[in-house]
Amino acid sequence: MRPLLSSLLACACLVACSASGKANPLGPPDGATDGATDSGWEEPVLGEALTEFSVARDPDRPLVVWITLAAEVPGTATLQASSEGAPTRDMPPFAIGPSPVTVPFLGLRADRDYALDLQVSLDDGRTTSGSAEVRTGSLPADLPPIDVRALLPDRIQPGFVLVPLSKWIGGPIPDWGYVLGFDEEGEVCWLISTQISSTFDVQADGTLLLTELVDNAVAVDPLGRVVHRLPVREHGMDTVHHDYLAFQNPDDSAETRLLLLSSEMRSIDGYDDGAGGTRSHNVVADVLVETDWSGAIHRQVHLFDLLDPLRTLPDFDLPFWQIDPYGPGPDPKDLSHGNALLRLDEGRTWLVSLRNQDWILQIDRDSGALLNRLGHEGDFTLTSGRWFSAQHSPKLRQDGHLLLYDNGANRPGESLPNTRIVEFAVDWEARTLTQVWEWRGISPYYVPAAGDVDVLANGNLLVTDGGVVDAVRTIDGQLNVHLTPRFVELSGEPGAFEVAMEVVVGNWGDFDSPGYIAYRGEKVSSLYGSGGVAAVSR
Predict the structure, then answer these.
(1) 468-476, long-range: CB < 8 A, 24+ apart
(2) 376-383: which pairs have CB atoms within 8 A and are 24 or more residues apart?
(3) What span, in angstroms and rounded, lies between the C-alpha atoms of 60 and 192?
């Protein structure tokens, strides 16, 4: 199976290389068709004290309906959308007044007739209401099919699953991408368009953290409108890749800081040349950078200073970094391949997951010192279970246990790769890891790249299989794989997990159809975030 993974990642970086420098703006243009008079819908019904109530479908965002409201005096409005055969959706309350306010209704399904019920409480004690009808637009024609394979409505955590999606045809297609939102029945109810993002995170205020290839860190609002863009190379960083975190500066709570994964290339000597001597390689390793949206660099930790560059695992030779600004000419090797970051101890220490070292490092924020190496041949002893390999998505649970998406590409002592979700008890003082449980998934289960696991509010686990290898075949002597993303919500206790929801995105096992890959998934209680409706008003 080793050529499988090599082919997979090699195709990824070569396709990305060919598209580097051709980044399109993230998200559709901002605009909407105002008014309902030319829409073919019936005029909204205005209640007493309402001076304006209009409904408009956004031509560039087919699932977004814009609501414009004004009243004689200030007040608070609530809206409910109902459609036969679909969940009823409530918009969070929002303020209105004599000046018109325009807000988006999010979370609606495509090609649906919705009845809108408006209720308004005015500050002078009066109440009023209104009603309207609207039909949502169609999903983009190039979206893959969605297969809801399992659904236990009473067992799932309420909310929306957000998943970034890239197309895979022998490698990723850089200029094609969406972030999709799925409702409680696994139906698409929200989307924004993107190009390939090598990371994905949803902030409490509803902002999404993405990248544009490895060139820019980007924050967008729930409509896909760019809030921040950091072109890292203009500020002394080679790349931004796989993960970055936004947090409040502990010394100035009004300032947002970013902790991101960047990289650097050095020429390193001492590698076996296969003929009894040594040779040098151009080697890429990660750089951890604390910065902000202005690009000012506050701290840097160079992993070349913490790792033995001659400790190489099988995927060292994969040409992942044959992309701008390193390749393809110098044939860069991939030493560490960081893919996830965590801040611990109120930000005093950092965890970084290194796929190509099979390690998770703990690093002191202020000094940059290496504190611990979790993983095979590291500083910890495994007291039970199996080591992790090519891991993603480390999380520390409330009890201190380490939860991992363990891709298992090169697990020590095993000849065939296999993926699992695993939890370890961590004793930081004794430096021991003890496997508590593992979940080996829904067969087949090998995900060579990407993947995520999250603990939900009700204790369920959301597992995002970034791209399951669902079919393999040889074409012209080359091994080809078909990848299909899948997200699964697990209910219950370890050893007795129940699949509360399983959704497959794409054509499972069909080589005549494109494959797809999703880096991570997140579940949110609201598409608006903590900022509410007003934060995404127009």
Answers:
(1) 468/444, 469/4, 469/444, 470/444, 470/508, 470/509, 471/509, 471/510, 471/511, 472/4, 473/511
(2) 376/412, 377/311, 379/431, 380/426, 380/431, 380/432, 380/433, 381/431, 381/432, 381/433, 382/432, 382/433, 382/434, 382/435, 383/432, 383/433, 383/434
(3) 10
Q: Return d(Cα 329, Cα 347) in angstroms, integer.
A: 39
CA–CA distance from 417 to each of 377, 390, 412, 423, 518 (Å)? 19, 10, 10, 19, 20
Longest dimension (CA), the chain: 90
Distance separating alpha carbons of residues 234 and 254, to the nearest angstrom: 24
Assessment of whether the complete model's pTM goes beyond 0.85: yes
Residues of the chain with CATH 2.120.10.30: 2-28+139-274+295-530
Two structure tokens written together for 339: 């893919």
Q: Looking at domain 45-135, does it have CATH number 2.60.40.10? A: yes
Q: Which amino acid is at 18?
A: S
428: amino acid identity, one letter: W
With tokens 């070292």, the residue in question is: 357
272-288: pLDDT as tens digits: 999 999 999 999 999 99
> For the segment 50-92, what is each residue's pLDDT rounded down to a tens digit?
999 999 999 999 999 999 999 999 999 999 999 999 999 999 9
Pairing of β 498-505 and β 402-406: unpaired
Taking the CA atoms of 316, 319, 320 and 322 in sequence, report the sign of the dihedral they define. positive
| Residue range 2-28+139-274+295-530, CATH number | 2.120.10.30
